[in-house]
Amino acid sequence: MNVVVVESPAKAKTINKYLGPGYKVLASFGHVRDLPAKDGSVLPDQDFEMLWEVDGASQKRIKDIADAMKSSDGLFLATDPDREGEAISWHVLDLLNKKRVINGKPVKRVVFNAITKKAVLDAMADPRDIDVPLVDAYLARRALDYLVGFNLSPVLWRKLPGARSAGRVQSVALRLVCDRESEIERFISEEYWNLSAILKTPRGDEFEARLVSADGKRLQPRAIGSGEEAGKLKALLEGASYVVDTVEAKPVKRNPSPPFTTSTLQQAASSKLGFSASRTMQVAQKLYEGVDIGGETVGLITYMRTDGVQMAPEAIDAARHAIANQFGDRYLPEKARFYSTKAKNAQEAHEAIRPTDFDRVPDRIRKFLDDDQLKLYDLIWKRGIASQMASAEIERTTVEILADNAGKKAGLRAVGSVIRFDGFIAAYTDQKEDGEQSDDSEEGGRLPEINARENLAKQKINSTQHFTEPPPRYSEASLIKKMEELGIGRPSTYAATLATLRDRDYVTIDKRKLVPQAKGRLVTAFLESFFTRYVEYDFTADLEEKLDRISAGELNWKDVLRDFWRDFFAQIEDTKELRVTNVLDALNDALAPLVFPKREDGSDPRICQVCGTGNLSLKLGKYGAFVGCSNYPECNYTRQLSSEGGAEAESNGLNEPKALGTDPVTGEELTLRSGRFGPYIQRGDGKDAKRASLPRGWKPEDIDYEKAMALISLPRDIGKHPETGKMISSGIGRYGPFLLHDGSYANLESVEDVFTVGLNRAVTVLAEKQSKAAGGARGGTPAALKDLGAHPDGGGSITVRDGKYGPYVNWGKVNATLPKGTDPQAITVEEALALIAAKAGKSGGTTKKAPAKAKAAAAGAKATKTTAKPKAAAKKPAAKTAAKKKSAE
Predict the structure, then answer these.
(1) pLDDT score for 622
(2) Is-contact 738 747, C-beta < 8 A?
(3) Measured distance CA(134)–CA(553) in Å, rounded
(4) Domain 262-390 carries which CATH code?
(5) Cα separation of 383 and 424, whole Å?
(6) Are 560 and 550 in contact (CB under 8 A)?
(7) Which of 600, 589, 685 is nearest to 636 (CA)?
(8) Is-contact 302 288, C-beta < 8 A?
(9) pLDDT band for position 783 (cuts 50, 70, 90)
């Protein structure tokens, strides 16, 4: 019997069926150990010794593997076919060697790009040793990310309160987003005009031609810069006669795109399906690991973390066979197509992402997939099959037209395209049963019959005003594309990097665009000012290239670490003498458009408008940065630093209190103000003045006396409960609008309900809340939103539930909160198991098998190392507070 180690239990179950009784397939559940999230886990002064930690759940996995190894003939390490998979195999083997269970038994590494019976059996027949250079590259990357995160983040905490973390790739990605925002702020829109003519042929067909030249001069794009100039040209065209000068029909071929890589799949899924990068990878993981199709679990796509664009020869043959069967021989090119990537630093060791079987047309397996799985599989299948299809044949017609008005001449041009043979485009349209397509479908606008030297009749002259647009904000798709072009990060890191930026509140997503928040822009400005080299695009890309060279065996990984650490450590040391005033001066200059937006009256935006003499500047407080006056405490003007450049507060007249009226009961004045946490209502003055922040969705410009009185008077008494006789009131709290009765709370749906809800509705809402609470008490936990099936270790089912603080995964007495933004209905078994394992590791186990769990909890997390027992580092620039923080890459 041989032991086979894979990463996920879903894979283990499927592969066990393929291999039969002579093998025992066990899952590692991903990484079995990691660097502890505390200072001192990587020791530069001890030749970059790395201290690894095994959590409680992983200890059990390793014990199960070790127990199986005692009676086995050998070990096959079959983790994923990438750098992380190689590292997991190395970690597992290192831990088993420490447990002394290998004892000379053969150990082999196998990799398969798809979870199909053929792919798995072929891999088992052709094993290899662990790729040491690939592991070295992993160690170097892990150490670099740790050293940057746990040394740079404490500098941010000390010098820039409110900042969460910095990371080697994360900070550069954030800089891209912030640089684009700065471009938008600096952009000055320019006016331009376009002119076109609606013309009619002698046969009565109309078409549009645009103006391209006047008075013998070619007009460059946006060359007509004023309405006056446009009016003169329009007058020329209004009185002109028109004749066709030339008609040129030119055949053009359009070639298909290569199959998907990780980044191009994420980009396409974002633009066409609206998926985030994280969602794309979650769905792709499920398609890769396998879906139950007619009683058999089958992997539908190849491995989804790759930057290779070429398919395996047998896959190309299968695709060509499917093309001939499904579309016809005309759609099959004479020779197979071969692709090579243009991405910087790309590694093409793996195949592109493709279907494992091109005969599995999306429509045929629709009933076995959920909506998201079907959409993504359809995208992958079409791109894969199209990549081996014939080129589309397009006829592009260009018509040049002369306009003559009493000797004043102008030139116009009309362009149209017709698809004469759709070729690969057929894969993206509904296929006919016989595989044939129309030979004269249109691409773009189609022109009517137009002949050279014939006269045309003018129907209408169009003159339209336009303004140049600033560059668009990045979407997740376009940011991934840019990072790939620059060679920043790798396919497996893009989704995690973007998720980290959102989780840190450095960026938000608005209409699928990445909007940098004030906190993110402050971090970027700080790093650009004091750690310039480490957020440079070329420096980060060069470091990625060195990591690739390590994986190729061309560089020693510790030499790369030494070179990096020497300069980085010196830079960290220099910041110890950095004064806060130096930081603020640098940030004021770097973020001037954000901190000091232009005023409509043209006055100096750096002068306080309240006292008229103080200078405005960034200030650093416990909760982050804000704008304040230099005359504090005599002038206590402050303004929140928002992602809208702080201009929102000033444009709404909140640079000084706005009087709204007087409270009829207290006689105190109501004012609308702006503080560091946003606009608020205040009644009276001094420390005892009552304040109420504007609820989310309320705009300062919409606040009048009635709304201010309603808000400042909260909580609102609704009436006495008919059963208890106690008052029911409504208000707005930390978790939103609520009802309060006899010490019990119930959520309201909207802020408006706080001011309008009546007694009957309030009693109903409270009763519904009480009913749900009673149901939860009887069942021990809230009702399950989703049942994921039994846990591999027993102990009951894994369920997804909705609790007081949001959705969570439950198994026994283990409750693991879902990450922010995760769809409870989309969580997979593998993701749930990972969350449970992480939670169980922190708490020491679950209630099941109590004696063993208690023993594991008492033992705690074992720590292992790559070399000798660690000693304290002689110099560590990171603050001790780093022990409580973890930097995400």
Answers:
(1) 64
(2) yes
(3) 8
(4) 1.10.290.10
(5) 9
(6) yes
(7) 685
(8) yes
(9) low
Query: Would the pLDDT of 884 be above 60?
Result: no
Single out the residue of 257, 265, 836, 749 nearest to residue 495, CA to CA. 265
Helical axes 313-326 vs 371-386, angle rounded to 10°: 100
Q: Is the pTM of this model over 0.85?
A: no
Q: Are residues 496 and 290 in contact, defined by beta-carbon separation less than 8 angstroms? A: no
Q: 277-289 and 9-19 are packed helices; what angle lies between their axes, rounded to 10 degrees?
A: 20
Say if residues 520 and 507 touch (Cβ distance below 8 Å): yes
303 is catalytic: yes
Which residues make Cβ contacts (< 8 Å) with residue 832, sequence separation at least 6? Answer: 788, 798, 800, 809, 811, 816
Q: Sheet holding 624-629: strands in order across?
A: 616-621, 624-629, 638-640
The CATH superfamily of 191-255+393-467 is Topoisomerase I, domain 3 (2.70.20.10)
Distance CA 485, CA 490 (A): 11
Q: What single letter denotes the amino acid at residue 480?
A: I
From residue 81, alpha-carbon distances to 62, 109, 282, 289, 826 in Å are 21, 10, 17, 13, 25
pLDDT in tens, 437-456: 333 444 447 899 999 999 99
Q: Residue 682 in 3-state DSSP?
A: strand
Closest CA relative to residue 522, chosen from 510, 538, 504: 504
Secondary-structure breakdown of the chain: helix, strand, coil percentages, each rounded to the nearest 5: 40, 25, 35
Confirm if 409 and 211 have CB atoms less than 8 A apart.
no
How many residues are recorded in the chain? Answer: 889
Q: What confidence tens digit (pLDDT) does each residue in 660-706 have?
A: 888 888 888 888 887 656 788 888 876 678 888 888 778 888 888 88
Give the ranges where 408-457 is alpha helix by DSSP (H): none
Helix (H, G, I), strand (E, B) or coil at 711: helix
Torsion angle (degrees, nearest 10) of CA 726, 727, 732, 733 = -30
Where is mean pLDDT largest: 411-425, 479-493, 798-812, 872-886?
411-425
Which helix (H) or strand (E) is 209 found in, with range?
strand 206-214
Place of tokens 């679990």: 297
Buried b (16+ CB within 10 A) or exposed e, 613-651: ebebbbbbeeebbbbbbebeeebebbbbbbbebbbbbbe
Domain extents in the chain: 2-130, 144-187+473-581, 191-255+393-467, 262-390, 716-779
DSSP calls for 280-326 = HHHHHHHHHH-EEETTEEE--B--S-----PPPHHHHHHHHHHHHHH
Distance of CA 104 to the CA centre of its chain: 45
CA dihedral (64, 66, 69, 70) in degrees, to 10, reads -110
Planar angle of CA 684, 633, 523, nearest 5 degrees: 105
CATH of 2-130, one of 3.40.50.720, 3.40.50.140, 2.160.10.10, 3.40.50.300: 3.40.50.140
Burial string for 462-491 (b: 16+ CB within 10 Å, else e) reads ebeeeeeeeeebbbbbbbbbbbbebbbbbb
Taking the domain 144-187+473-581, which CATH number applies?
A: 1.10.460.10
- Give the pLDDT confidence score for residue 342 in this predicted structure: 63
Nearest to 13 by CA among 21, 29, 1, 25: 25
pLDDT of residue 853: 37
> Which entry of 192, 288, 303, 534 is annotated as an active-site residue?
303
- How far from chain centre, in Å, is Cα 7? 24
Token pair listed for 206: 């109309």
**What is the DSSP pairing of strand 797-803 with strand 784-790?**
antiparallel
Q: Where are the alpha helices (DSSP H) in 622-724?
A: 647-651, 705-712
Best CA proximity match to 420, nearest among 207, 246, 203, 249: 249
